[in-house]
Amino acid sequence: MAFAAVLVYVLFFSPFLExxxxxxxxxxxxxxxLILDKINSQISxxxxxxxxxxxxxxxxxxxxxxxxxxxxxxxxxxxxxxxFPSKLVVNIVERKPQMVFCxxxxxxxxxxxxxxxxxxxxxxxxDKNDFIILLDESSKKINLGEIVLEKKYMEYVQGIKxxxxxxxxxxxxxxxxxxxxxxxxxxVKTKEGPEIYFNENINLEKEIEMLKVVLENKIEKNQRQxxxxxxxxxxNKIYYKFRDGTPSQIAKDAVTANSTTQTTAxxxxxxxxxxxxxx
Length: 279
Hints:
Oligomer: single chain
Shape: rod-shaped
Strand order of the largest sheet: 8-7-6-9-10-11-12-13-14-15-16
CATH class of the largest domain: Alpha Beta
CATH architecture of the largest domain: 3-Layer(aba) Sandwich
Helix content: 25-40%
Largest sheet: 11 strands, mixed
Order of helices and strands: HEHEEHEEEEEHEHEEEHEEEHEH
Number of helices: 8
Radius of gyration: 29 Å
CATH topology of the largest domain: Rossmann fold
Mean pLDDT: 85
């Protein structure tokens, strides 16, 4: 009887099992003190005004996990381990934010799986994060927890920005547009002026190479600001249009010829129409 009384005292009333140390690991986006504040709020006070809540045996790890993840949605998983006699070890698995997806005036942060895990508010402060903001003009309704984009599609979108910068030294605005996700079309606004139209169904490296040759051989650098758009969405062809309304088309053979230092004049769309009428 005396042994049982001593055991109960040691386990629940003595300071032996009181939590005196909390270790938080593997969090890059959520600061330690914010997580510690959440944990401390759960282990402060007493149960029934008698037993301290910071008892290592009685700490409600499930409630702690739930509260932290509700507050910080970037946290995908939390593992809490008890180390006797007085330590909690909290291991955090965070999501990897990839880009922002906006539709019907609502914006969401997407993780590495393309899941909309949190709301995102467009602001001058958030713009400093340099995330691509993909605007869906079809006004598709998005819900938190929904897989919005496939990994392959996100990699393609991110690759556009990276390849234009690395291979063409062309900087783009972070606001990308899609008329519809079904079409796989992506419209990118360059800081030089023109929009560039891409399509995921066409190899990105091929699109960039054709664009590079056209910009180097067909369009003078000082003319780029007068371009309205360059369209790379059709395989083996490039369409581009100047702001004065002059459209042009370049086929793959013209690009290939230019890349081997031969000269082939671009064919305007209007010239093609006149030729068909004569035929």
